[in-house]
Amino acid sequence: MLTVAPPDAVELRANATFEALMWALSRPGDIRDMPEAGFSAVVETLVDLECTVFSDDPDLRAQIAATGALQAEDISQADHVFLSSLEGAEARLVALRCGSALYPDDGATLVAAVRHGVGQRVRLSGPGVDGVLEVTLGIAPGFWAMRAMLCAYPEGFDMLLVDGRSVIGIPRSTLVEVL
Questions:
Q1: Class of residue 78 by CB neighbours under 10 A (exposed 0-12, middle 13-18, buried 19+)
Q2: pTM beyond cutoff 0.85
Q3: In sequence order, what DSSP letters do the residues of 43-61 get, joined into one string?
Q4: How large is the C-alpha radius of gyration of the chain?
Q5: How far apart are the first and last CA of the chain?
Q6: 70 assigned to some structural domain
Q7: pLDDT tens figures, 65-85
Q8: Is 158 in contact with 171 (CB distance < 8 Å)?
């Protein structure tokens, strides 16, 4: 008889983080709680040997290196982009991978520290949103204009906006209107 060991604390945290991230992307604009604040659990959950990752945080780069993932020198090379702030990042983010009509899954995932409940009010609509949903995020209107230019569905990039333990997902299929 084969016995299976119960999951340890690391596996339980990774499973709970994965569930929070997937629910966040499947229900755009809804706030989901992760078991741990910050990017560490997100890296632990999403990043593996097959990923190329960019981060602007030296401490996070050390954690990414421990996963065996390739570290990108430039945003345009990355599958996952971790940014400590989106403030003034529009010019750099134009280089984000957005996939193609044949391979939309080649679009990057942007994981960024963004305050929830303060800043610019936006209206979300599209798959996973019941009608429309208004949220307030600490992201400048210029960012949304840049995203609209890059995200011609099915092409585009997905977003995970982290504020402490909270995460909001905005997939490429979500229409964002600045209010």
A1: buried
A2: yes
A3: HHHH--TT-EEEES-HHHH
A4: 16
A5: 61
A6: yes
A7: 999 999 999 999 999 999 999
A8: yes
How far is CA 162 from its chain centroid?
A: 8
Q: How far apart are CA 5 and CA 17, in angstroms?
A: 21
Whose structure tokens read 């400048």? 140
| pLDDT tens column, 158-175 | 999 999 999 999 999 999
> At which residue do the structure tokens 């997100």 appear?
42
The number of CA neighbours under 13 Å toward the Cβ of 81 is 24
- Strand (E) or helix (H) holding 142: helix 141-150
Give the domain CATH number at 159: 3.40.50.11310
What length does the chain have?
A: 179
Distance CA 73, CA 34 (A): 28
Domain that holds residue 160: 9-178
